[in-house]
Amino acid sequence: MTDTRLPHDHGQSIEKELDQMPGAEVFQAAADIFKQLGDGNRVRIFWILCHCEECVINIASMVGMSSPAVSHHLKQLKAGHLITSRRSGKEMYYKAAETEQAQLLHHVIEQIVQVACLSKTDGE
Which site from 43, 79, 89, 106 is most exposed, i.e. has the minimal number of CB atoms within 10 Å? Predict the structure, then answer.
């Protein structure tokens, strides 16, 4: 956005920041990651996989869901490059991807859960 003049001058100097603003495709990529975490069960599954490597049956037991439902969430998390998988015999194991994005999201989830838990106990 080079040399952009805004229609209304509100006394803010935002032009320099606009020059540094990434393209729409970068923001869409970020939005796509947030879509992956738009389901509470998927966030729980992702959180678990940030702490251990597990198979579908054990994950399903941990979150109280059916294996097909967990498999659906795992497929979405994998498509978003937030988790990886490996096969050992007939069993497939999943864990959080070792990427900066996955680590950052794990940290954000941990912080949000901590804040939510603290504010929940404060109000009781």
Answer: 89
Q: Which pTM does this prediction carry?
A: 0.76
Helix, strand or coil, per DSSP, at residue 83: strand
Query: Which residue do the tokens 């996989």 mark?
Result: 49
The domains of the chain are located at: 31-122
Contacts of 37 (CB under 8 A, 6+ apart): 43, 46, 105, 109
Strands 54-55 and 91-96: antiparallel
Q: 31-122 architecture in CATH?
A: Orthogonal Bundle (1.10)
Residue 5 has pLDDT above 50, yes or no: yes
For 84-99, write each residue's pLDDT tens digit. 999 999 999 999 999 9
